[in-house]
Write a structure and sequence with these properties.
It is built from 7 helices and 2 strands, in the order βαααβαααα. It is mainly alpha-helical. The protein has one domain (about 5-150). InterPro entries: AosR.
């Protein structure tokens, strides 16, 4: 089983975890990428939405579990084939939520290139932007090192 351990700076990551956890909790029973599904039977739509919400909640739980007491003791997170996909999906959900809550004024290109002077941003926006970039980096790390379809090509 492929597994990577990532040593993170507690001084840098710990403050970002507060905003990441807030964004994750704010999702509650709401999908990060809402779907209308107006053409479906209400019973089928409700069942499907319920499964999607439960899946998102489960993914968020897996991602947040990376940052448990062991993380704060050692500064290390462990990624493997079991938690990789849920973590990638949870990162995407939280990034979408951060965009919605804090980063509406930034265009896609700015968010993806991180071409921003951080010192020009107010504290909550700066933290949200840094959290957004941290989660993007985590996603990239998983895809580069744990995604079989990319490794084998």
């Amino acid at each position: 089983m492929k597994r990577i351990e990532v040593k993170l700076s507690l001084d840098v990551v710990a403050p970002l975890l507060d905003i990441i956890k807030q964004a994750a909790e704010s999702l509650g029973r709401t999908l990060a990428a809402p779907l209308a599904m107006t053409d479906l039977e209400p019973e089928f739509r409700d069942a499907w939405m319920g499964e999607l919400k439960n899946g998102q909640a489960s993914d968020l739980t897996v991602m947040l579990a990376l940052f448990d007491g062991d993380f704060f003791a050692e500064g290390v997170i462990t990624l493997d084939e079991v938690n990789a996909e849920p973590v990638v999906r949870a990162c995407a959900a939280v990034r979408l939520r951060l965009r919605e809550l804090y980063l509406k004024t930034f265009g896609d290109e700015t968010l993806e290139t991180s071409d921003v002077n951080m010192m020009d941003l107010e504290e909550p926006t700066r933290k949200a932007f840094m959290a957004y970039l941290f989660l993007a980096t985590l996603q990239e790390l998983i895809i580069q090192h744990l995604d079989e379809s990319i490794i084998e090509s």
